[in-house]
């Protein structure tokens, strides 16, 4: 080394520190890189993204390459620094120790910590910039990597340690968390729709149905004039049709088809019966996402929900499910349960109908009513009190004070909610 100029020795030391920093930075960047973004770029023709994915599919060999390069660079840098110090100071032990300590500090700061911080801060940019070079280095160092991999595998076999495959798939909850944390990358409305889609598999059709008491149905047992009047003033395009008792649904009437009959003078119930399509019945525990698929497969838009005894519980339409995903976009029918969106007033109070759905109240008012039992605030109070209460009875449920304002017949009509913490 006496024939090598001092400046060349320092240059070689700087190069070794740079190589160590390079391997530390690229390792951190590749491990922190977003694989979904890399796949997107690779599909658009990015060779660097394809190379980065190729490396990440061979994580064991990639880590072997990085560790071999980093270890060799650090070891050579330490040895070279010791040799330089020996040539400068001779055998003075204190100065040799100080020199080795200074080089170790340089390696820690400039070849390990700083590069890893940079790699973690800009993972995709660095991964794309270095992936092609790393792939070429891996090809050149394949024999050495193979030997190291064989030694590690043999050691793990002796220790009875099995290397499990890394599952890069995302669970539904993980994907939901990614959407929640997307921030400004996804507009708020789009983010809301995506989150609603995740909820579809958790809710059943009886969570979004129109309950039996609010179904607009056509009774063929009525006089023809009443039928004519109902059809000219009805709100919906499709009506369930029954005779006498609503549990005896015989079909679905498309109102547009029936409008041509209204001009006829000799009109009878049988004329409407000829226009009926077969009713479509489903159980109340059908999950909403499955029902959306059933609507598509069966080319239906309306389903009657019946319980185990064949009693009609309500109905659900394709519009109900779409509104569950994108929010309400249709004009509510007169007297419908979801007429106006409730909200807290200045005093932290809110008046809601007893038929209001607990899921809607939880969403709109940021409450935490239980959803594994009754579906409405009326049902929740009746289950809790085990009785039909009088007006002005108050209870506390899920941290919210509920005051009964009006009770009529067998149901609670209006309640006042007091915001938790008030």
From TrEMBL:
Residues 2-199 form the CNNM transmembrane domain. Residues 275-331 form the CBS domain. The chain crosses the membrane at residues 6-33, 62-88, 94-111, 132-159. One of its GO terms (molecular function) is flavin adenine dinucleotide binding. Its main location: membrane. PROSITE patterns: CBS, CNNM. It is a multi-pass membrane protein. It is found in: Cell membrane. GO terms for cellular component: plasma membrane. SMART domains: CorC_HlyC. Pfam families: CBS, CNNM, CorC_HlyC. Keywords: CBS domain, Cell membrane, Membrane, Repeat, Transmembrane, Transmembrane helix. Belongs to the UPF0053 family. This is DUF21 domain-containing protein. It comes from Noviherbaspirillum pedocola.
């Amino acid at each position: 080394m006496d024939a090598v100029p001092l400046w060349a020795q320092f240059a070689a030391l700087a190069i070794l520190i740079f190589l160590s920093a390079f391997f530390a930075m690229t390792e951190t960047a590749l491990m922190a890189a977003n694989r979904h973004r890399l796949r997107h770029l690779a599909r658009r023709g990015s060779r660097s993204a394809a190379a980065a994915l190729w490396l990440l599919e061979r994580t064991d060999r990639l880590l072997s390459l990085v560790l071999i390069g980093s270890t060799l660079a650090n070891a050579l840098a330490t040895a070279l620094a010791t040799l330089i110090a020996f040539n400068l100071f001779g055998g003075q032990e204190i100065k040799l120790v100080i020199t080795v300590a200074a080089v170790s500090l340089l390696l820690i700061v400039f070849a390990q910590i700083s590069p890893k911080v940079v790699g973690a801060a800009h993972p995709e940019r660095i991964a794309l910039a270095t992936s092609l070079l790393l792939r070429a280095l891996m090809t050149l160092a394949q024999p050495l990597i193979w030997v190291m991999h064989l030694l590690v595998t043999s050691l793990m076999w002796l220790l009875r340690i099995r290397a499990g495959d890394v599952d890069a798939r995302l669970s539904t909850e993980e994907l939901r968390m990614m959407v929640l944390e997307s921030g400004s990358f996804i507009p708020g409305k789009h983010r809301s729709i995506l989150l609603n889609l995740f909820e579809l598999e958790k809710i059943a059709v009886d969570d979004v149905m129109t309950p039996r008491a609010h179904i607009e149905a056509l009774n063929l047992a009525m006089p023809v004039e009443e039928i004519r009047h109902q059809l000219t003033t009805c709100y919906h395009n499709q009506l369930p049709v029954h005779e006498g008792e609503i549990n005896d649904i015989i079909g679905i009437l498309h109102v547009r088809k029936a409008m041509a009959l209204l001009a006829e003078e000799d009109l009878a119930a049988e004329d409407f019966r000829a226009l009926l399509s077969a009713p479509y019945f489903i159980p109340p525990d059908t999950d909403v996402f499955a029902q959306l698929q059933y609507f598509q497969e069966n080319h239906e838009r309306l389903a009657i929900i019946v319980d185990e005894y064949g009693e009609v519980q309500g109905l659900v339409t394709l519009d109900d499910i779409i509104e569950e995903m994108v929010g309400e976009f249709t004009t509510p029918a007169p007297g419908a349960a979801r007429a106006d969106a409730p909200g807290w007033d200045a005093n932290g109070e809110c008046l809601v109908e007893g038929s209001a759905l607990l899921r809607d109240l939880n969403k709109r008012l940021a409450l935490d009513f239980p959803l594994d039992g009754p579906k409405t605030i009326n049902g929740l109070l009746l289950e809790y009190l085990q009785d039909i209460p009088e007006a002005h009875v108050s209870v506390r449920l899920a941290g919210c004070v509920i005051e009964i304002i009006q009770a009529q017949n067998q149901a609670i009509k209006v309640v006042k909610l007091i915001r938790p913490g008030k």
